[in-house]
Amino acid sequence: MPIDHVLKLYSESIRSPYLHYGFWDNPEAVNTDEITLDEMVAAQERYIEHLASFIPEDVKTILDVGAGIGGNSSYLLSRGYQVEALSPDEYQEKVFAEKYNGEVKFHRTKFESFEPEKQYDLVLESESVCYIQIELGWITARKTIRDGGYLLASDYFLHHNDGSGDWHIKAAHDENNYMKIAEKYGFKLIREYDQTDNTMPTLDGTKAFLERFIYPTVEFSSNYMDKSHPFILKILKKAFGKKVGAKMKQLSLVDSDEFRKYKRYMIYLFQKVN
Ligand SMILES: C[S@@+](CC[C@H](N)C(=O)[O-])C[C@H]1O[C@@H](n2cnc3c(N)ncnc32)[C@H](O)[C@@H]1O
To answer: Which residue of 30, 156, 164, 242 pairs with 201 in a disulfide if CB–CB is 3.0 to 4.6 A?
Structure first.
């Protein structure tokens, strides 16, 4: 995979070193109509702090799989861990090279194709589980993690599939299937935490932002084009109409009620036991 432009756009616009949902300690107290970018980034910092509290005491070496643009790796380094990073993305490799000047070894590959030269105490998959094919991911985890070592997964998983083909269903792994295959490759679930409530203010805040700024801007531009350049608008609709329609359907991904209907945002700590 050369560059994931959606993740690149996100990192350049939010200007955060993280590409995950963040963690809100008191989700019921958050006014999602008024979330600021600073609060969003603070929630992202809290996410890795909370996630790192699941790392067992005998861990020294960590492979940060699907490392994004390095926020989690930096936090782990600051906590004294030896960290290496992995991602198939060229842009992220460049960001790591500039940020760490070789201090953090970067493996540019999909995890499924990774050929480890050594074994690590822990593999971290922070919001990267859903990108990695389940079976191949566990096969690689088995080679990559030492006996008794750990895989710490933090991501959303499907708990309900009504066969509707909803975007939420397409974009997540089925949690029962994930567990079954983990067991098949010798990984035992030793801790879990449901952080759905703690992550949903990010979706609600994003939805509020879209409704307040983006949709009215799109509507204004469309009305303006209709009045001033109707012919150009007609051509644009013909060229991009279907694609725009599909993208609008994808926006259900920022609806937290829809999210909860299909998914849970989980932390799972597995140990390689046999
Ligand atoms: C949503 S981002 C999460 C980034 C980071 N872990 C974080 O928490 O901020 C998903 C990451 O997984 C990476 N990724 C996508 N496909 C992958 C694969 N097959 N193997 C490993 N990483 C992958 C993406 O390039 C990106 O770095």
So the answer is: 30
Strand segments, DSSP code E, in the chain are 61-65, 82-87, 105-108, 120-126, 145-158, 173-174, 187-194, 263-272
Residue nearest to atom 7 of ligand 1 (CA): 19
Q: In this structure, are 19 and 123 located in the same domain?
A: yes
- Give the structural domain span for 29: 5-199+262-272
Using one digit for the tens of pLDDT, what is the confidence trace for 76-128? 999 999 999 999 999 999 999 999 988 899 999 999 999 999 999 999 999 99
- Residue whose CB lies within 8 A of the most ligand 1 atoms, among 46, 69, 128, for a mutation test: 128
**Cα 127 to middle of ligand 1, angstroms:** 7
Which of 186-195, 231-240, 257-266 bottoms out in mean pLDDT, i.e. has the lowest? 231-240
The pair of three-digit structure tokens given for residue 256, joined into one six-digit string: 């937290």
